[in-house]
């Protein structure tokens, strides 16, 4: 049986993935991009994989239209907090040095933690290790960054693979940093990719209506 694929900006994403034990479904996808002088520059394509059971944790939003959910950060906070496995598959469209990605991740997470008064030595150390992990990587087109968030522990496993090299992995064990990474990618209006957030809202709104 071949896995069905969904194309996100011409990059194929499998509709289902199994990381640990349960099959996860592609419930949202999109891109990160910026517009400079009316020119759209695309950086990455994103696939968000979640346990289908997540819908059971979001019943209070049943009947709400997708455009309303996309604007509702409480909905996305509940999605992030739901005790289900979550997996992000991020494919590079525009090549970038790993150090640039690492520093971008670090500054976003650091600023958000500082704002919430949760940025202490442990968080700083965890972020330094993430920057170190990405430092030596070169993210050419079609390289893959993954974030796996298990349902049972507040940790994240970051993976990086690029053509011709074995996948390298790194575990983040600081709960505040892990939470903030989740929010960066899944945090509703605070998410890095509006297209991904909108797609998640549309899919889950339709699932809740069943």
TrEMBL record:
The keyword Membrane does not apply. Gene3D superfamilies: 1.10.890.20, 3.50.70.10. Keywords: Isomerase. Residues 8-205 form the Chalcone isomerase domain. One of its GO terms (molecular function) is intramolecular lyase activity. InterPro entries: Chalcone_isomerase (IPR016087), Chalcone_isomerase_3-sand (IPR016088), Chalcone_isomerase_bundle_sf (IPR016089), Chalcone_isomerase_sf (IPR036298), CHI3-like (IPR044191). Pfam families: Chalcone. It comes from the Eukaryota. The keyword Isomerase applies. PANTHER family: CHALCONE--FLAVANONE ISOMERASE 3-RELATED, CHALCONE--FLAVONONE ISOMERASE 3-RELATED. Belongs to the chalcone isomerase family. This is Chalcone-flavonone isomerase family protein.
């Amino acid at each position: 049986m071949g896995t069905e694929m969904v194309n996100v900006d011409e990059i194929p994403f499998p509709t289902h993935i199994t990381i640990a034990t349960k099959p996860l479904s592609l419930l949202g996808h999109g891109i990160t991009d910026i517009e400079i002088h009316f020119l759209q520059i695309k950086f990455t394509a994103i696939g968000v994989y979640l346990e289908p059971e997540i819908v059971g944790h979001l019943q209070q939003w049943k009947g709400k239209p997708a455009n309303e959910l996309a604007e509702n950060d409480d909905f996305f906070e509940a999605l992030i907090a739901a005790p289900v496995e979550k997996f992000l598959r991020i494919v590079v469209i525009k090549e970038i040095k790993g150090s640039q990605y690492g520093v971008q991740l670090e500054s976003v997470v650091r600023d958000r933690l500082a704002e919430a008064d949760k940025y202490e030595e442990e968080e700083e150390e965890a972020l330094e290790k993430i920057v170190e992990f990405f430092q030596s990587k070169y993210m050419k087109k079609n390289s893959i960054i993954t974030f796996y968030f298990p349902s049972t522990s507040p940790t994240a496993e970051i993976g990086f693979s690029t053509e011709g090299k074995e996948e390298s992995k790194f575990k983040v064990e600081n709960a505040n940093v892990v939470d903030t990474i989740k929010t960066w990618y899944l945090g509703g209006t605070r998410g890095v990719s509006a297209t991904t957030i909108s797609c998640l809202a549309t899919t889950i709104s339709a699932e809740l209506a069943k």
